[in-house]
């Protein structure tokens, strides 16, 4: 049976990756990612929830070897097509909770997860995830993850205005939330930066936390901003120059966190 991510795959790039909001959010991620990729030697990078391969291609073009994984067969098919004959990118269908089954089992410099992959891991699963990740990383290796926090102001405002208070505050749930993806329910847990740091603090130290989408809106507002490019550009500029402070991370659509193996 096809999952929600399989069903979403054919339209994912047109609905998110190639939209103005999608490009702006990904550019924000890359702004913080690039300094860790600007190394003199090629690094081994494991990407979790690679989607259609946009980030895998980006990291490969910066001179690194990328093993791109995703639970969705359909997402991987599109990622393989996007990578074409790039020999520095390999692919594997892999559940993020099965990190121990990642192959090849070589030591990694970076484990990267963009746009909510770790939100598919329950609190019970986070601790073994960090243990397995630490075992796979070289000394001083990094986890770089983009995660959905609990207090997204855009989401609260949008759904309150639509008269949906339950959806507006769904991220505050302490237990699992079932989020619709292409008509299917996906089990989702939300985490603030402090929670992620706490789960990994025996093995990792926190290097960076920044908001992604504090003023840049969530992707489900693409239709509203389609003809408001000037306003969207202004929001992007303001986020980059005025609203990129660490303490705003729990209130954004996502946050990026960088953890270094102790």
Sketch the major β-sheet. Answer: 7 strands, mixed
Give me the side-by-side strand order of the main sheet: 3-2-1-4-5-9-8
Mean of residue pLDDT values: 95
Write the H/E string, N to C. HHEHEHEEHEHHEEHEHHE
Instruction: Categorize the overall geometry.
Output: globular
By oligomeric state, this entry counts as single chain
Helix fraction, binned, reads 25-40%
Sheet-strand content, in percent, reads 15-25%
Uncertain segments = none
Helix and strand content put the structural class at alpha/beta
Kindly provide the radius of gyration, computed on alpha-carbon positions and rounded to a whole number of angstroms.
Answer: 18 Å
Contiguous helical run count: 10
Number of strands: 9
Summarize the structure in words:
The structure is a single chain. The chain has 262 residues and is α/β, with parallel strands linked by helices. The protein has 10 helices and 9 strands. The strands form 2 sheets. Strands 3-2-1-4-5-9-8 form a 7-stranded mixed β-sheet, sandwiched between helices. A two-stranded antiparallel ribbon has the order 6-7. Helix 2 (20-37) packs parallel to helix 10. The radius of gyration is 18 Å and the shape is globular.
């Amino acid at each position: 049976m096809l999952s929600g991510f399989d069903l979403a795959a054919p339209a994912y790039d047109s609905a998110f990756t190639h939209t103005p909001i999608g490009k702006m959010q990904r550019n924000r991620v890359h702004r913080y990612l690039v300094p860790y990729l600007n190394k003199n030697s090629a690094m081994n990078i494991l990407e979790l929830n690679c989607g259609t391969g946009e980030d895998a291609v980006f990291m490969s073009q910066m001179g690194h070897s990328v093993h791109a994984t995703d639970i969705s067969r359909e997402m991987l098919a599109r990622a393989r097509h996007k990578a074409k004959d790039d020999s520095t990118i390999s692919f594997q269908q892999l559940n993020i909770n099965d990190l121990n089954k990642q192959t090849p089992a070589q030591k990694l410099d970076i484990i990267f997860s963009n746009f909510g992959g770790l939100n598919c891991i329950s609190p019970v699963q986070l601790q073994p995830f960090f243990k397995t990740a630490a075992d796979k990383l070289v000394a001083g290796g990094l986890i770089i993850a983009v995660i959905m926090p609990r207090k997204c102001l855009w989401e609260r405002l949008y759904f309150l205005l639509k008269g949906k208070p339950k959806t507006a505050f769904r991220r505050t749930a302490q237990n699992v939330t079932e989020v619709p993806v292409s008509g299917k329910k996906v089990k989702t847990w939300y985490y603030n930066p402090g929670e992620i740091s706490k789960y990994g603090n025996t093995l990792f130290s926190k290097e960076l936390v920044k908001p992604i989408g504090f003023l840049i809106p969530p992707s489900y507002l693409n239709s509203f901003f389609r003809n408001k490019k000037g306003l969207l550009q202004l929001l992007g500029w303001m986020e980059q120059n005025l609203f990129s402070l660490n303490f705003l991370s729990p209130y954004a659509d996502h946050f990026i966190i960088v953890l270094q193996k102790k």
